[in-house]
Design brief:
Blueprint (H helix, E strand, L loop, with lengths): L12 E11 L4 E10 L3 E5 L9 E6 L3 E11 L2 E6 L2
Antiparallel strand pairs: 1-2, 1-4, 2-3, 3-6, 4-5, 5-6
């Protein structure tokens, strides 16, 4: 169970890794920076975060790909939940 101040179900590990956001049936791609990561979601820094769709693919190092749903957006950052 998460602490009183932490609302996430799983703790996140701070990272600084390049990622690629893939959307638009795979034709549209945008570079981003993975700022933290857990088994359930992540925080991503990306230009034009407001313009990205609600669901997209996140391509991470070592060719790991996750289907993501945006949970929140603020300026050039967004939090995503991994879809099962």
């Amino acid at each position: 169970m998460a602490s009183q101040h932490e609302r996430r179900a799983a703790p996140r590990l701070d990272t600084d890794l390049p990622v690629i956001i893939v959307h638009g049936d795979g034709v549209a791609r945008q570079n981003g920076d993975l700022q933290n990561l857990s088994p359930l979601g992540a925080r991503i820094a990306v230009e034009a975060a407001q313009a990205l769709p609600e669901k997209f693919y996140l391509l991470m190092p070592e060719h790991r790909m996750e289907v993501c749903k945006v949970v929140w957006r603020k300026n050039q950052e967004m939090g995503v939940a991994f879809q099962v």
